[in-house]
Amino acid sequence: xxxxxxxxxxxxxTVVGNWLKTLPFNQxxxxxxxxxxxxxxxxxxxxxxxxxxxxxxxxxxxxAPLSGMVSVTGPxxxxxxxxxxxxxxxxxxxxxxxxxxxxxxSGALASNVSGSGTTDFTHxxxxxxxxxxxxxxxxxxxxxxLVTNTLVSGGGSFRLQSSxxxxxxxxxxxxxxxxxxxxGGGGSSGSGFTNVITNAPR
Length: 202
Hints:
Blueprint: E1 4-7, E2 11-16, E3 19-26, E4 34-54, E5 60-63, E6 66-73, E7 79-87, E8 90-93, E9 107-124, E10 138-149, E11 158-178
C-alpha cells in the first residue's frame, strides 16, 4: 500500500536591506522517507521614501515607483524563484517655484512608502539538480535583494531622490512520502525546525 504524504516544518530566514546573503537550511533527512517536492517561499517587503521636484513651468503629474526584487538560487546557481514587490508613488506638482527643495507647490516628499509580494515555488525532487537537498547536514541557498527607482511617467524636467530597503522572509519546506509499515497502519508525522536570522539594513 502507498505511504503517507507529509511535510517537514517550514524553515524560515529573514533578511533586510539591499543584500546578497548565503542562508543555511537543513537538508531533507532521507531516513524520514522519500523526498517528493521542494517548496521555496519568498515574502518580500519594500519600504522607503520618494522626493520629487517639478523643474518645468507647467503643472505635472509624476509617477515614480520603488520596485523590489528578491531572487533565491541553490547549488550551482540553480534558480529556485524570485518575487517582486512594488510601491508606486504618484504626485501632482505645480510649476517650478525657483527652489529645488522638494517642498512648496513644485516639490513634495512621499514618506513611509511600502509595497510587498509573496510567491511560492514547488520543484520536483526527481530532478537530479536537486540531489544536494538530501542529506543530514545543511544546504546553502543564496538570496539577493535589490530596490530600484524608475520614473515611469512625468511631464517636462524633474528632480528625483529616493531612499529604500527591501526585506524578505525566505522559506524552505520538503514534501515527502513515509513508507507504509508492514501489515498496514499510518505513517509517521513530519519533523523539521525553524531557523530565523535577522540582519540589520545597510
